[in-house]
């Protein structure tokens, strides 16, 4: 699950179209002992900057 937030300006108020995406780190497990757990996501792996 993810939520996207679209921004049209940077912090200085200058035009800059960009998005922020928040990802849920919860994953469903197959065993009944702990059906839900958190998955650690490395934010560097998700960075789209060139």
Tell me about this structure.
A hairpin with a 5-residue loop joins strand 1 (2-9) and strand 2 (15-23). The strands form 2 sheets. A two-stranded antiparallel sheet has the order 1-2. A two-stranded antiparallel ribbon has the order 3-4. It has strands at residues 2-9, 15-23, 26-28, 36-38. It contains no helices and 4 strands. It is mainly beta and 50 residues long. The two termini are 25 Å apart. The mean pLDDT is 80.
What fraction of the residues are assigned to beta strands by DSSP? over 45%
Morphology call: elongated
Uncertain stretches of 5 or more adjacent residues: none
What's the assembly state of these chains?
Answer: single chain
Contiguous helical run count: 0
The major beta sheet can be summarized as:
2 strands, antiparallel
Outline of this structure?
This protein is mainly β and 50 residues long. Helices cover 0% and strands 46% of the residues.
Describe the secondary-structure layout.
Blueprint: E1 2-9, E2 15-23, E3 26-28, E4 36-38
What keywords describe this structure?
50 residues; mainly beta; two-stranded antiparallel sheet
């Amino acid at each position: 699950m993810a939520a996207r937030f679209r921004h049209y300006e940077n912090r200085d108020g200058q035009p800059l179209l960009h998005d922020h995406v928040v990802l849920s780190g919860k994953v469903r497990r197959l065993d009944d002992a702990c059906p839900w757990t958190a998955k650690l996501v490395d934010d560097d792996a998700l960075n789209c900057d060139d």
